[in-house]
């Protein structure tokens, strides 16, 4: 979907061929939804379907922050061994030259040591925010490591990582299917962090330098750019007990911003943001942190925001950022609705040492249970 103009948006739909484009949801899903993913039968609502509003909950002033980040290592980025049956997702995105972008996802449904279960691998390639191709594969033949991020699918290595002699974390991701693929190296340029979040766990590396090649309809293209990686563990009960979430991220110059908005119900939500600057990270919380969503549009029967404003101010720091969608596309599965946004970001961060501009491309996500 493309958004044009200012204020009230003109919405245009493009129908995608189900034979060429396929979708995989990122985020927590129930077992029924996983079965639907395996069946590869996402079914969009009809254009005339009943429209329902995806409300935004109130953010209370909590005594305890919802998410408290702490330092991470490559060992933390391995599979969560010893846990009961759960979902685990390794997610990579990259904003590249020539107005290209790519999202690569590996989702595992497993427990114990991860020796048995289901693995879903998805690749989504964009040009100027428009989806060019979406490829995925579902299999029970996979290998994961609890010691470090290393994943194999059908005997092929799709993700591995190492620590370079300079002490950086370097990820290598590769995947190819039906003439579309990627082979990228992503090296961290910011400190990663991790922490418990509600019924799950979240690890993120906010900024990575990216270079390598894309395979675009059979042709190899050299690319470079800026990437983001996160790793999530979710309880299968999350879709039954929560309402959904939104998140967003942008990296520009010396500063990166990652934020999360967790909707526990239509009336209650938790929020946080994490600023990375000069090799360190700084969590931001309510009541000093405020989030507002606007520029709503109707899409597949749901009223969704296409803009987010973040404001933060205390005695030492002030942040003002607007993220506005230029493109988005929906993913529909029974009981789940997901939107991935390409956004333009404008804002500034002001501290004791001066003011820094925050400007550039980014991404947002919305999951509705």
Describe this structure in words.
- The protein is mainly β.
- It is built from two helices and 27 strands.
- Strands 4, 5, 6, 7, 8, 9, 10, 11, 12, 13, 14, 15 and 16 form a 13-stranded antiparallel β-sheet that branches.
- Strand 6 (100-112) and strand 7 (117-127) form a beta hairpin.
- The longest helix has 9 residues, at 31-39.
- It is globular and about 55 Å long.
- The chain starts with a strand and ends with a strand.
Order of helices and strands: EEHEEEEEEEEEEEEEEHEEEEEEEEEEE
Measured on Cα atoms, how large is the radius of gyration?
Answer: 19 Å
Mean pLDDT: 85
Give the overall shape, derived from the CA principal axes: globular
Largest sheet: 13 strands, antiparallel
Distance, first to last CA: 21 Å
Computed structural class: mainly beta
**Multimer state:** single chain
pLDDT < 50 runs, ≥5 residues = 4-53
**What percentage of the residues does DSSP assign to strands (E)?**
over 45%
Helix tally equals 2
What is the strand tally?
A: 27
The helix content, as a percent range, equals under 10%
């Amino acid at each position: 979907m493309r958004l044009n103009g200012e204020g009230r948006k003109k919405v245009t739909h493009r129908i995608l061929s189900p034979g060429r484009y396929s979708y995989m949801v990122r985020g927590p899903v129930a077992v029924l939804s996983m079965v639907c993913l395996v069946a590869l039968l996402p079914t969009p609502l009809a254009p005339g379907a009943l429209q329902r509003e995806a409300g935004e909950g109130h953010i209370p002033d909590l005594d305890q922050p919802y998410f408290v980040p702490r330092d991470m290592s490559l060992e933390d980025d391995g599979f969560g061994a010893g846990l009961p049956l759960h979902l685990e997702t390794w997610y990579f995105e990259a904003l590249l030259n020539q107005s290209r972008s790519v999202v690569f996802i590996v989702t595992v449904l497993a427990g114990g040591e991860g020796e048995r279960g289901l693995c879903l691998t998805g690749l989504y390639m964009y040009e100027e925010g428009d989806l060019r191709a979406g490829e995925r594969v579902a299999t029970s033949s996979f290998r994961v490591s609890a010691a470090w991020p290393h994943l194999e699918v059908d005997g092929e290595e799709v993700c591995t990582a190492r620590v370079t002699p300079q002490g950086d974390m370097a990820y290598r991701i590769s995947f190819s299917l039906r003439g579309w693929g990627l082979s990228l190296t992503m090296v961290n340029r910011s400190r990663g962090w991790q922490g418990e979040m509600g019924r799950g766990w979240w690890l993120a590396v906010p900024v990575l330098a990216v270079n390598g090649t894309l395979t675009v309809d059979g042709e190899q293209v050299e690319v470079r750019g800026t990437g983001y990686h996160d790793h999530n563990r979710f309880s299968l009960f999350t879709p039954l007990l929560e309402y959904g979430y939104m998140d967003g991220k942008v990296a520009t110059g010396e500063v990166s911003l990652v934020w999360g908005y967790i909707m526990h119900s239509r009336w209650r939500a938790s929020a946080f943001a994490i600023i990375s600057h000069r090799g360190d990270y700084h969590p931001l919380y309510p009541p000093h942190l405020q989030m507002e969503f606007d520029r709503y549009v109707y899409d597949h029967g749901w009223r969704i925001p296409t803009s987010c404003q973040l404001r933060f101010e205390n005695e030492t720091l002030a942040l003002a950022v607007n993220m506005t969608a230029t493109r988005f596309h929906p993913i529909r599965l029974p009981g789940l609705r997901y939107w991935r946004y390409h956004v333009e970001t404008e804002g500034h961060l002001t501290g004791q040492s001066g003011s820094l501009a925050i400007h550039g491309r980014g991404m947002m996500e919305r999951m509705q249970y």
